[in-house]
Hints:
eleven-stranded mixed β-sheet; alpha+beta
Amino acid sequence: MVTTTLLSQLKGPFSFLSRDPAEILRLVPDAERSLPVPQQIFLEDEAATPLVGFPVLLSAELRELEAALEEYLRFEEGVQLAVLARQPFDPNAYAAAWERYRALLARATENTTGSSYGRRFPAIFWLHHSLAVARVLRDTPRRVMRESASLGREHGERIRYQVLDKFLDRAVKVTYDIVDRLAAETEEVEEELFPALFTRLRDNVLIFTEDHVGPQLGELSGYFAGQLHIDGRAFRDRLAETAAWLGRELRGDAALRGTARLLGGNSEGDPRDLLLIRGLTSILALRPAYDPQRLLTHEQVRVWERLLVKLKEFELFHALRRLVVGVEKDAAGLVARDRSLGRFGIGPQTARISPSTRPLDFLAPWVVDPQVSRFGMIYDISDFTETISTLRRSGAAVQDRSFRQLFLFQRRIHRLARQHRSKMEKYLGDGAFFSAREASPMLALAIQVQRLYAKAVGEGFSFARGLRIALNYGQYRLLPVQAGRPGDLERYEFFGHGVVELSRLTTGKAAKEVDELKTFLVAHGYPEGTVNRFFAPLTAHGLDLVDRIEEEREFFAYLTRTGSLVNEGIVATGGFIEHLDREETTRRLFAARDGQRSYVALHLPGPAGSLLVGLRKLGNASLKGLDRLPVYEVVDGAAWTDTTLVELRGGRLVELLERDFIQRRTGAPFG
C-alpha cells in the first residue's frame, strides 16, 4: 500500500505525526489516489544504495518560475502595505509581475497535468512549489518591518496571510482554467485531473507559510497572532501546564493510564506525547480535576484539537516535499543535490547519479523525457505459429503438456533475466523483450537463454524449430500504459526505433519477402509453375540462396549475397558492440576458430561463472524499413578450450572485429 511504503521513506524529524499507516489514512483518506510514491534514484555506481525521492530537474526555466513567484509575492506585499498606508502603487508593474508568474505557472500546470497519466506529476509539482512559496512568505513580516516599523509590528503577520489568500485564489483559478480546457480536449473527468493534493495543501496555511515547526511551537507566534488572533505565548504556557498536570494524574489513576494505552499512547512516557493523540485533550477537559482557569480553557482545547490536525498534516506533507531531490545537468552528466547526502546535513551534499535517471522537468512538455537509451534483447521461437497449428490437431493431453513446457521455459528465462540485472518489458507470446543498462550482462543473458533452449529441446520441448535472439543498443520511447489507480504499479510500454530494429533482426523479414509473395500468389489461384518462372531471374541472382554450410550448425546467422539476414542464432548490432567495447569485460580478447569461421572471443562474468563468447562481423544487413545496419553474430564458446585460444593484443574489440572482417574478405589469416 502507498501508506506503508511512505512510512518507510518519509524524512523526519516528527514532533506531532505518528508513524502509523492508520494516522496517514485519517489525515488523507484518499492517500492511495492523491499521494505520490517516491522512486529509487540510483547513484552513478548503480550497485550502491540508491536515494529515494522525487528527482526534479533544477532547470533554468524552473529557476525563472521561482524568481517570478518571489517577485510577484513581494509586489503583493507592497500592494497590501500601500493600502494600509494609503499610498499609491504602480498597477502596471504589479500586473506585469503577476502575468510573468502566471504564464510560467500555467505552463507548468499544463505540462504536469497533460503528461501525468496517473503518475501524480501535479502533486509532485505542488510539493516542490509550496516550499518555494513558504520560503518567501516566511520572511514577509520582516520585509514589512523594514518598510514601515509601525505597520510591520501591527499588521506584518496579517499581511502575510492576506498575501497567501490572494496567491491561492489566483493559483486555483489558473489551475481550474487549465484543467477545464484539458478535460475537454482529452475527454477526461475534470475532477480527476485537478490535483487532489493541491486542494489539501491550500486548506492548511502552515504548509505555504512554514518550513519547520518544532515541538515547542515557537515558530508559530505569527500564526497565533495573524491567523488565530490569540496570544501564542500564553497558549504555549497553558499547554505545557496541561502536560505537567496530565503527568501527575497518570501516576495516581490506573483507569486513565488504561485509557491512554487504548488510544495508542504510552502512559509511562512523556505526558506531552499523549496530548498528540487526537481527541484525548477533549476527554481530559471533562475530568472533574481539570481546571480551565489554570490549564487550557475549553475554547483553547478546541483550538488545540484543530491545530493538532494541521500540525500532523504539515509534518506529513513537509516530509513528502523533503523527498524532492534537486537534479542538475553538467558536462559529465547528472548531479543530485540533497541534504541527506551529507552526514547530519553537514559535508558534501551532492552526488553523481545514474545517467538513466529521468528527472521531472515541470517546464518541459513531457515533464519526464520519454526517450531513453537502453540495451535491448528480443528472443523469438522460430515457426511458433506453425507449431501452434500442428498442436491444435493433437489431443488435449499433448496440447496441455506443450503449453506447460512453454510456461516453464519462459519462467526460467525470467529467472535468468533477474540474475543478469535485466527487466522483462514486453511479452510477445512466442518471445519477450528485455532491457538493461549494461551490455555485458545482457550478452551473457542471451547465451544463457540459448543454452536453456537447447536443454529444453533435448528434454522434448514441443517448440523445437529454433530460437532467434537479437541484441541492440537503441533509442526507445517509454509511454505509461497503466498507472494512477489505487494499488497499481506504474507500467511503461517501449515504443520506437529500437523495438522495430530488434523485431527485424529476429524475423529476418527482408529475406522472406519473395517467398511470402510467392506463397500469396499461389494461394490466390496463380499456377505455381507460372509464379516460379516469373521470379526465376531473382532466384538466378541468388536472392533466396541458402548457405548450406552455415545451416549445418545448431544455431547460426549469416547474410545472403543481397544483404538479407538469416538469423537462427544470436545477432547484435554495431551499436551494441561499440558499447560492449567500452566495458571492462573486453580487456582480454582472443582469436578463436570454429571450422572455417574465425571469431574474436572474450570472457563474460556471470552469476554461475565465466562465459566464453565469440563475436564476428557479418556485414551490413538490409532490413525492411531500416537503413543498412552493421550486424555481428554471437556464438557460445563453451566448446572452445584455452589451448585453442590465441590472445590478441594491440587493439580494442571493434577494431579487431573489423580487422577480422576485412581479412576474411581478402583471404588473409587472422590471429
